Amino acid sequence: MSRYFLLLLLNLPFIIAAVLSAVTHYKLGRSSRRRLTVQVIIWVTVLIALASAEPIYTWLFSNELTTTEPLSLFDVVQITAIVVTFYIANRTRLKTQFLERRLQDLHQELSIRLSKD
Amino acid sequence: MSKKRIRVCIVIPSYNEEAVIADVIDGVTEVFKKSAYDFGIVCIDDGSRDRTASLAKEHGATVIRHILNTGAGGATATGLSYAEQNAYDVAITMDADGQHAPEDVLAGVKIMIHDNADLLIGSRLINTEGMSKVKIIGNKGLSFITYVLFGISSTDSQSGLRIFSRNALERLRWKTSGYEFCSEMLWRAKQIGLTISEYPIEAIYTEYSKAKGQNNWNAVNIVKSLLKRRIAELFG
What we know:
The structure holds two protein chains of two kinds.
Chain A: H1 3-27, H2 33-51, H3 53-62, H4 73-116
Chain B: E1 7-14, H1 21-33, E2 38-45, H2 52-58, E3 62-65, H3 72-85, E4 90-93, H4 102-115, E5 119-123, H5 133-150, E6 162-165, H6 166-171, H7 181-191, E7 196-200, H8 207-212, H9 218-234
Parallel strand pairs in B: 1-2, 1-4, 2-3, 5-7
Antiparallel strand pairs in B: 4-6, 5-6
């Protein structure tokens, strides 16, 4: 199996999960259309970059624009780790924002209700 | 048939203001008693450690106590939410440090109703008499940054004296809870198409309000937070 294909195979689940999560959040009214668009653009860009890594490398190498070695197994692991870290960081940011909002609303409503008692 | 009286809610977000809160409430009560409006004063005690809440209650205000200190933005949001839930027609926010003249507050309500605006800002910078140069520079700087980041042209984007229509109460929401909410609120109002206008007010600076007022260095934090909010908005 080509290492480029392995790279794509390892990262594809995270990209699909991220896009699905962005669409679900939008459909459930938890995020705006703009956020959905930005998220989809980011993840599709990552997918295109990974999918076109081999043709780009081949083109650069054949035109003598690079002399670097082809993708190593370590490179595959490293790039996958970066994508996974980005996926986790993105999810954590969204969850934190959502929880922050909920906490603010809860505190506000609780204060108003307690003042009536 | 009698005409329905306009109900006005005066929201006073406060934090450790026991020295002046009673005078502020008494001053507003005196002026509004002579007016044609039904009014209520609500003091949002933002987790004070002194007698702010009990003094406010003794002087006739409804007191909402925050369990945690959230900041001026959070306290203002609670006050406006209370006004919305209790079906007030107009809500006013004013500082608890005695910086605003009660006559200016009442004048604002009249202007707002006359102009049919959604959000009216009492600007201290149309007439800067009595304000120190440092404060003028700080406030004008923040108004300029508000203009650069959000495209809002306001002479005093940081003013605490603001008057809200029922429409604004129902629709206006913001995300920040510190002092940066002043600029963010204007931005959100613009986003949802509310009409924003200004009127000149006098700023009363006593030794107390000067000591309590915002340090100009806090402007750095405000700008940082606004920038963060602006960038986050770009990414949805």
